[in-house]
């Protein structure tokens, strides 16, 4: 079995540094493989490596490595206290002193030159060390470009320009670190949600222990106003719990004996005793954090393109700089100092900082912000797909409807009465997990009908049709009318009852044996209150087709959908037929998003370009099957998902355009000599800053305000 270790990283400053750090870790002899997740600031190592070895591999960027198992609180260090920023400030003081000396004793005075050299060495030590190492290994990145530019400036006597380049580059790096830290903060807030201690009841006494030491089956005491430390089931007490940490909704949910509660949620006014059902690493919030971290590591297609482009971009810039530096003096009679200076300016302008971070900073910000709103997006690729969706397909039960159907009619045919029909049906459906089965069981419980005296065997579910079982020796069937129509003759009276119930929006199930139909059970599922509003909002957002797929009868489907602004309805579909319908729609309409509960429509969710699951908190199936999960089972978050996807795509496109256009403009200004070295680095810093600030606009997108409850 492979030895896998996961670490959290502090001090990881840029995407380029992440790639270099990953390469350095892979070079450790005892490491088989390594992966750095820049978005989540995490390192995964396959093999053996000590903390000292890992930190040595990241020494060029001042990276601190913390084992993930250590639940060490990561306090945000103030911007002005970070070592790199303090060094930049000291460098700036020497630079300022150099400028003062320039105007008092002259730019060429030894003291002035010394001040600029001190500024370069202090502020550019790590830059120059990394850049020179890269040059020796023929590795070309932004550190290489900057190092050549600074050394080149020194060689032609432009000490002041070299010092300004170092200082402005340090400021640019500091701003990038600050912005990435801001983008990661939404994930860090998730990590910090769950308490690190829990009050466990043992032998009637309270013991405060680390959550890692709590085991399944322990009883945890949650006092009023405390956060719940572990997932579990309430075994004593009543309270209301604010589940906003997971669902994004602040409305408290009433909890009593038998209800599930989740780590990281806030207890209200009552005390609860909770029996732990999951270890700390398996809690719902832990799964969410894991999914978000994986999503932030996933490279979107645009980012993959930018990364591939950057590999060729830096060497190309170096060739252009070389061309600018030597061609005019050699063949056009230009002055060497002038054109070497301009060649160095090309190197500075060519720094790919803004381009490299244009996509990841937007993706990390968007995914982290979505998680805070109760929406899990499993990667940048899905964010991009969401932005291109124009057709959205909905499952009916549990998506457009509440998913809690109720029995409205029980109509016996023949020898059985209502009570007997319900009793046999409940005995069979007890083995089933279908939502309609739960409706029958709730009706039996409400009617105080017990079926414990019935012997049930040979149960089998028939996907999309119903179920069968032997009850007290007789084989019974329960399910859609179509289950019986192929084997039994259904009378006109029964058909009339079925049609009447379906036109009223009921889903009809028949109960029968191998010779006849014994009864009809009609079940109705209420539309979600905000279903019509959400569909209308989606249409206003440019979703041109909204289609409902259901296994229900055509008449039932049309009755349910009569008040919804749908463009198409497709009924009487088996799960595999929903999958086929999605493929057909893709051929007709292009990209498709499918919205379902992630259980019986899993094939359709997988077939769609984007699978969106409506997930009750802790629904493992929804977390695993879909590309996007709406926690808290809230359909109202769909418009937010579309807006977020589109806004993220716009921002990424804007970022790339900003980075490219400013580079091109700066390169054009270099040729006539209108751009100095310090102006070039300032232009590069400006592009980086614009890209970062533009990406952080995603933090302002609210997932609640425009979604009616």
From TrEMBL:
<keyword id="KW-1003">Cell membrane</keyword>
<keyword id="KW-0547">Nucleotide-binding</keyword>
<dbReference type="InterPro" id="IPR044492">
    <property type="entry name" value="P_typ_ATPase_HD_dom"/>
</dbReference>
<feature type="transmembrane region" description="Helical">
    <location>
        <begin position="109"/>
        <end position="128"/>
    </location>
</feature>
<dbReference type="GO" id="GO:0046872">
    <property type="term" value="F:metal ion binding"/>
</dbReference>
<dbReference type="InterPro" id="IPR051014">
    <property type="entry name" value="Cation_Transport_ATPase_IB"/>
</dbReference>
<keyword id="KW-0472">Membrane</keyword>
<dbReference type="InterPro" id="IPR008250">
    <property type="entry name" value="ATPase_P-typ_transduc_dom_A_sf"/>
</dbReference>
<protein>
    <recommendedName>
        <fullName>Cd(2+)-exporting ATPase</fullName>
        <ecNumber>7.2.2.21</ecNumber>
    </recommendedName>
</protein>
<dbReference type="GO" id="GO:0016887">
    <property type="term" value="F:ATP hydrolysis activity"/>
</dbReference>
<dbReference type="InterPro" id="IPR023214">
    <property type="entry name" value="HAD_sf"/>
</dbReference>
<feature type="transmembrane region" description="Helical">
    <location>
        <begin position="312"/>
        <end position="332"/>
    </location>
</feature>
<dbReference type="GO" id="GO:0005886">
    <property type="term" value="C:plasma membrane"/>
</dbReference>
<dbReference type="GO" id="GO:0005524">
    <property type="term" value="F:ATP binding"/>
</dbReference>
<dbReference type="InterPro" id="IPR001757">
    <property type="entry name" value="P_typ_ATPase"/>
</dbReference>
<feature type="transmembrane region" description="Helical">
    <location>
        <begin position="656"/>
        <end position="675"/>
    </location>
</feature>
<keyword id="KW-0812">Transmembrane</keyword>
<keyword id="KW-0406">Ion transport</keyword>
<dbReference type="InterPro" id="IPR027256">
    <property type="entry name" value="P-typ_ATPase_IB"/>
</dbReference>
<dbReference type="InterPro" id="IPR059000">
    <property type="entry name" value="ATPase_P-type_domA"/>
</dbReference>
<dbReference type="InterPro" id="IPR023298">
    <property type="entry name" value="ATPase_P-typ_TM_dom_sf"/>
</dbReference>
<dbReference type="InterPro" id="IPR006121">
    <property type="entry name" value="HMA_dom"/>
</dbReference>
<keyword id="KW-0813">Transport</keyword>
<dbReference type="InterPro" id="IPR018303">
    <property type="entry name" value="ATPase_P-typ_P_site"/>
</dbReference>
<keyword id="KW-0067">ATP-binding</keyword>
<feature type="transmembrane region" description="Helical">
    <location>
        <begin position="344"/>
        <end position="368"/>
    </location>
</feature>
<dbReference type="InterPro" id="IPR036163">
    <property type="entry name" value="HMA_dom_sf"/>
</dbReference>
<dbReference type="InterPro" id="IPR017969">
    <property type="entry name" value="Heavy-metal-associated_CS"/>
</dbReference>
<keyword id="KW-0479">Metal-binding</keyword>
<keyword id="KW-1133">Transmembrane helix</keyword>
<dbReference type="InterPro" id="IPR036412">
    <property type="entry name" value="HAD-like_sf"/>
</dbReference>
<keyword id="KW-1278">Translocase</keyword>
<keyword id="KW-0597">Phosphoprotein</keyword>
<dbReference type="Pfam" id="PF00403">
    <property type="entry name" value="HMA"/>
</dbReference>
<dbReference type="Pfam" id="PF00122">
    <property type="entry name" value="E1-E2_ATPase"/>
</dbReference>
<comment type="similarity">
    <text>Belongs to the cation transport ATPase (P-type) (TC 3.A.3) family. Type IB subfamily.</text>
</comment>
<dbReference type="InterPro" id="IPR023299">
    <property type="entry name" value="ATPase_P-typ_cyto_dom_N"/>
</dbReference>
<feature type="transmembrane region" description="Helical">
    <location>
        <begin position="84"/>
        <end position="103"/>
    </location>
</feature>
<feature type="domain" description="HMA">
    <location>
        <begin position="3"/>
        <end position="66"/>
    </location>
</feature>
<dbReference type="GO" id="GO:0008551">
    <property type="term" value="F:P-type cadmium transporter activity"/>
</dbReference>
<dbReference type="Pfam" id="PF00702">
    <property type="entry name" value="Hydrolase"/>
</dbReference>
<keyword id="KW-0104">Cadmium</keyword>
């Amino acid at each position: 079995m492979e030895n896998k270790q996961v670490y959290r990283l502090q001090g990881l400053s840029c995407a380029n540094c992440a790639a270099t750090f990953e390469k350095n870790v892979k070079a450790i002899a005892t490491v088989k493989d390594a992966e750095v997740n820049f978005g989540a600031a995490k390192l995964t190592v396959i093999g053996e490596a000590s903390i000292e070895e890992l930190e040595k591999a990241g020494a060029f960027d001042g990276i601190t490595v913390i084992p993930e198992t250590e639940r060490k609180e990561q306090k945000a260090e103030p911007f002005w206290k970070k070592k790199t920023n303090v060094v930049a400030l000291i460098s700036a003081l020497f630079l300022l002193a150099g400028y003062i000396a320039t105007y008092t004793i002259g730019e060429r005075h030894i003291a002035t030159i010394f001040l600029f050299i001190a500024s370069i060495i202090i502020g550019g030590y790590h830059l120059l060390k990394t850049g020179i190492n890269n040059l020796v290994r023929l590795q070309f990145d932004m550190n290489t470009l900057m190092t050549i530019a600074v050394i080149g400036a020194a060689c032609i006597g432009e000490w002041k320009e070299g010092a300004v380049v170092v200082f402005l580059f340090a400021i640019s790096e500091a701003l990038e670190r600050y912005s990435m830290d801001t983008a990661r903060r939404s994930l860090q807030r998730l990590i910090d949600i769950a308490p690190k201690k829990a009050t466990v009841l043992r032998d009637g006494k309270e013991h405060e222990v680390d959550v890692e030491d709590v085991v399944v089956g322990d009883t945890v005491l949650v006092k009023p106003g405390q956060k719940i430390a572990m997932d579990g089931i309430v075994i004593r007490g009543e309270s209301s719990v604010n589940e906003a940490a997971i669902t994004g909704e602040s409305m408290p949910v009433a909890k009593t004996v038998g209800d599930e509660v989740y780590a990281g949620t806030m207890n209200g006014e009552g005390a609860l005793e909770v029996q732990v059902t999951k270890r700390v690493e398996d809690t719902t919030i832990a799964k969410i954090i894991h999914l978000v971290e994986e999503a932030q590591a996933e490279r979107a297609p645009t980012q993959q393109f930018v990364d591939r482009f950057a590999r060729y971009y830096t060497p190309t810039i170096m060739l252009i700089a070389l061309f600018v530096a030597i061609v005019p003096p050699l063949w056009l009679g230009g002055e060497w100092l002038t054109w070497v200076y301009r060649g160095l300016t090309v190197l500075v302008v060519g720094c790919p900082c803004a381009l490299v971070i244009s996509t990841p900073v937007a993706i990390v910000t968007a995914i982290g912000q979505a998680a805070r709103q109760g929406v899990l997006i499993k990667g940048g690729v899905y964010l991009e797909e969401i932005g291109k969706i124009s057709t959205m397909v909905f499952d009916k039960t549990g998506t457009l409807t509440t998913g809690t159907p109720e029995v409205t009619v029980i109509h016996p045919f023949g020898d059985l009465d209502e009570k007997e029909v319900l009793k046999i049906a409940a005995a069979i459906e007890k083995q089933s997990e279908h939502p309609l089965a739960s409706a029958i069981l709730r009706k039996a419980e409400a009617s105080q009908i017990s079926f414990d005296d019935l012997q049930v065997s040979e149960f089998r579910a028939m996907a999309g049709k119903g179920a069968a079982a032997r009850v007290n020796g007789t084989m019974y069937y329960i399910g859609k009318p179509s289950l019986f129509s192929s084997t039994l003759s259904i009378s006109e009276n029964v058909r009339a009852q079925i049609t009447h119930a379906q036109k009223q929006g009921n889903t009809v199930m028949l109960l029968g044996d191998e010779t006849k139909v014994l009864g009809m059970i009609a079940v109705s599922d209420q539309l979600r209150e905000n279903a019509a509003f959400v569909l209308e909002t989606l249409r206003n957002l440019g979703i041109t087709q909204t289609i409902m797929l259901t296994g229900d009868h055509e008449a039932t489907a049309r009755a349910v959908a009569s008040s919804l602004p749908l463009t198409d309805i497709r009924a009487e579909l088996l799960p595999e037929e929903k999958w086929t319908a999605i493929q057909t729609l893709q051929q007709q309409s292009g990209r498709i998003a499918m919205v379902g509960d992630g259980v019986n429509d899993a094939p359709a969710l997988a077939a769609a370009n984007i699978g969106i699951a409506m997930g009750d908190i802790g629904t493992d199936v929804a977390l695993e099957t879909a590309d996007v999960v709406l926690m808290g089972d809230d359909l109202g978050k769909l418009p937010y998902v579309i807006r977020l996807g589109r806004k993220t795509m716009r921002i990424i496109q804007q970022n790339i355009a900003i980075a490219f256009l400013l580079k091109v403009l700066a390169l054009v200004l270099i040729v006539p000599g209108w751009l100095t070295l310090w102006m070039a680095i300032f232009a590069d810093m400006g592009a980086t800053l614009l890209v970062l600030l533009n990406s952080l606009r995603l933090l302002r997108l609210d997932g609640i305000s425009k979604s009616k409850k």
